[in-house]
Amino acid sequence: MTTVRREPEAIYTDPAAPVGERVADLLARMTREEKLAQLGSAWAFSVIEGGRFSPERARPVLRHGLGHVTRVAGATSLKATQVARVANEIQRFLVTETRLRIPAIVHEEVCSGLMAREATVFPQAIGVASTWAPELNRRLADAVREQMRAMGGHQGLSPVLDVVRDPRWGRTEETYGEDPHLVARMGVAFIRGLQGSSLAEGVIATAKHFVGYGASEGGLNWAPAHLPPRLLREVYLYPFEAAVREAGLESMMAGYHELDGIPCHANRQLLNDVLRGEWGFGGTVVSDYFAVDDLHSYHHFAEDKRQAAALALTAGTDVELPATDAYAGALAGALDAGVVGEGELDEAVSRVLRQKFELGLFEDPYVDEAAVALTVNTERHREVALEMARRSLVLLKNDRVLPLRPGAGTVALIGPNADDARHLLGDYSFAAHVESLAEARERRGLLGQTMTIPDDLEIEESTEGLPTVRDELTARLGDRVRYARGCDVIDTSRDGFDEAVAAAAAADVAVLVMGDRSGLTTRATTGESRDRSSLDLPGVQEDLVRAVVATGTPVVAVLVAGRPVGGDFLHDECAAVLMAWLPGQTGARAIAEVLLGEVSPSGKLPISYPRSAGQIPVFYGHKVSGGRSHWHGDYVDSPVRPRYRFGHGLGYVPFVVEQATLNRAEVTAGDGVEVEVIVANIGDRAGEEVVQLYIRDPQATVTRPVLELKGFARVSADAGRRAAVRFHLPTGQLGFYDRNMNYTVETGHIEVYVGFSSDTRTHTHAGTFTITGDADRPRVEKAYAGTVVVDEPPTATARRPLGRT
């Protein structure tokens, strides 16, 4: 082994020097090959042989250095300590065997926790959004940061900030739902938790997929999105803007799709003018996997790989993932031809180097392998996962059959998701995603792209130790649980129907655990590239529901799914419906606890629940001319309203809004109003509720949505107790883009409503206030959120006797 000695006079090696000076010094020493290497990446398995780092395989891959290592944990079956060891060996090779000794950034997927064999599997993002608890999401990200850093990771490819209003799209499960404010609040919290107080101890967050990826034609993956400028600004760009300006986001991933004829990876207006110019973003833009070459091979936007590389880099795409392709010889050719300037190359490299310095990689690129076991999937992390799973479950319907009483007789437990822990996990969990690696090796490709996965790479699918719903219910009810699978998620065999029907007929209640299987392979029904044309349960599950309901036994449907699912019969005829989403490794316990009343459900829908695919798009924040057919209102064959509205979710504990008031009737533009809400628990046990604050602008120079979420708070209260929720609503949060596409806060009236969902029929009108201001007043800065405080109500209110309403 040849050791390259450190140059003592090099400024970049001095940890006391300012980062900017270190970057400039290092950049000045680099050859073009070394610069290009910093904009590239390599799959971890390309430098592994037999489960160990291979210097022989690494030498041609790492000879000039490397920008990113792709998924040491997520693209292998290595256990946590082995991941740390391989990450250390990769860094050691770069530090000792390359000329400038530049460590690499190791990136991993973190959609439902760190995608690693022994890491904690949290609920999928759509379930996280159902908690309406940003602080809990920050704690989730804290846990991910700790686990990633322990294993040698530095950049997580989350959060997904795509606003989605078409649940046919397979990646709906990875999102925080339909509302830009909710998406932004959950995303900002995640970024703050993942990046920490500084990158020296933090992990770079990567918001994706910039922008409009979830608004594709037909709900189809990678399809074009048709978004007019105002809608793009106010809804789809909004969460990303909040992530940059509020949370200090360090990395952005461009989307696979196109907007108005321009693929996002080549869209300079988005990646440079808006992101960097308007918002002041100073981080890196990374490509989605294979997306630079897709400009040529998929979109036919570039005539060859060289032009694809030039278009991407000059638009603002800094780093090519998951492996260097177009940013190697093709980009070098573009530089030689003068299509790309050396200054543009240097800008991108400088951004990558800055992050490496701020991560502390030059001072300490290694991790403590002996400490990994003490950090990964600890009891503390599992407790966060359990709390998240409990609060993510949404009780959609309950005809007084839930909670099940401990002595209420036998329970028939039926369905393809009742006794399979794998089905509780999202598409970017390790167990789900490793299946795509196995399929990719067999097909010699991934995501439609040719790639080679070494035959000696161990690929082991495992859900070892994860309990199923059957396990958790049996632990509580013993032999009173009678299990029958009934059918598969997607196969069409009805061979198990008779056994399931017999079990239901002999039971006091039937619990059907139905839904999806998440992943990226053809066996999956939800997840990336698993788009659907129907929202009915896949396979023959709807028929199984009919057969079980026909027995006359009360039926509880538990939907383990990545999108709103289930036909009219299921939702009309089942006595209760519980949406569990994809609740992760503690999900089975949370489901059992809610079914038996050990925990009261408190999740709220982050997305409107369509009656059928024919209603799509259906969302609460439509314009006054939308959401209905003029003049009869409904469809010929269906109501226009969704099956369940955004923000809906029942519990076992009833709450009421006793009063809601504004502190003023008039406010100057640039100031704010206070909204005080008194809520009361009128049940006989402690419980939780989510107070939701909506506004309506009844008259504006640009048409406005009929309702807009502007604040929310999760409230806990003991039986018979009240809580006071105080919202500060800044007027900077109430603006919109005017006819000249300038953000403006107009003078006029604003109506304020509070409730427990977006259903206006149940809202309390807190009041109407007027925004005033002179025509020559200074422009009001955009605000992304106000503040909210939850505490005890004033004494006189607190002591007033409660009555049921």
Please explain how this structure is put together:
With 805 residues, the chain is α/β, with parallel strands linked by helices. Helices cover 29% and strands 18% of the residues. The protein is built from 22 helices and 30 strands. The strands form eight sheets. It has a seven-stranded parallel sheet. β17 (509-515), α19 and β18 (555-560) form a beta-alpha-beta unit. α6 (134-151) packs parallel to α7 (180-195). It is globular. The termini are far apart. The model has no long low-confidence stretch (mean pLDDT 95).
Name its key features:
805 residues; alpha/beta; six-stranded mixed β-sheet
What global shape is seen?
Answer: globular
Content of β-strand: 15-25%
Spatial strand sequence of the major β-sheet? 1-4-5-6-7-8-11
- Contiguous helical run count: 22
Biggest beta sheet attributes:
7 strands, parallel
Structural class, from helix and strand content? alpha/beta
Q: In which range does the helix fraction lie? A: 25-40%
Radius of gyration: 27 Å
Mean pLDDT figure: 95
> Would you report the number of β strands?
30
Task: Tell me the distance between the termini.
Answer: 79 Å
Low-confidence stretches: none
Can you give me a brief rundown of this structure?
It contains 22 helices and 30 strands. It has 805 residues and is an alpha/beta fold.
Reconstruct the topology from this structure.
Layout: H1 19-29, H2 32-38, E1 41-43, E2 48-49, E3 52-53, H3 55-62, E4 68-70, H4 80-97, E5 105-108, H5 125-130, H6 134-151, E6 155-156, H7 180-195, E7 204-210, H8 229-236, H9 238-245, E8 251-254, E9 258-259, E10 262-263, H10 268-278, E11 284-286, H11 291-297, H12 305-315, H13 326-336, H14 342-358, H15 379-392, E12 394-398, E13 411-414, H16 430-443, E14 445-446, E15 449-450, H17 469-477, E16 481-484, H18 497-505, E17 509-515, H19 541-549, E18 555-560, H20 568-573, E19 576-579, H21 587-595, E20 655-662, E21 666-668, E22 672-681, E23 687-696, E24 708-717, E25 722-730, E26 736-737, E27 743-744, E28 748-755, E29 764-772, E30 787-791, H22 795-799
Parallel strand pairs: 1-4, 4-5, 5-6, 6-7, 7-8, 8-11, 13-16, 13-17, 17-18, 18-19, 21-29
Antiparallel strand pairs: 2-3, 9-10, 12-19, 14-15, 20-22, 22-25, 23-24, 23-28, 25-30, 26-27, 28-29
